Prior knowledge:
Largest sheet: 3 strands, mixed
Strand content: 25-35%
Mean pLDDT: 86
Strand order of the largest sheet: 1-2-3
Number of strands: 5
Radius of gyration: 16 Å
Number of domains: 1
Shape: elongated
Helix content: 25-40%
Amino acid sequence: MRRISTVEFIRNFGSHSDAALTEPVIITKNGRDRLALISIEQYNLLQHAFDALEDARPKSRRAPVRRSQGKTALRRKA
């Protein structure tokens, strides 16, 4: 797994985004992990796994999920 700073990511976006096609790229800020860049194939695998886990849970225990424009976001409890 490749780990780079935000500045390095911005400077070499093309090469780092190409690298993310084969392995996750962790982007750090102030020395702390902040983001993970992964291929769309890896994202889809994770999304399908998440959906399968949610489908297996009893309905009363499922987290409310909002889906819009192909994105998934968990709702925050007020």
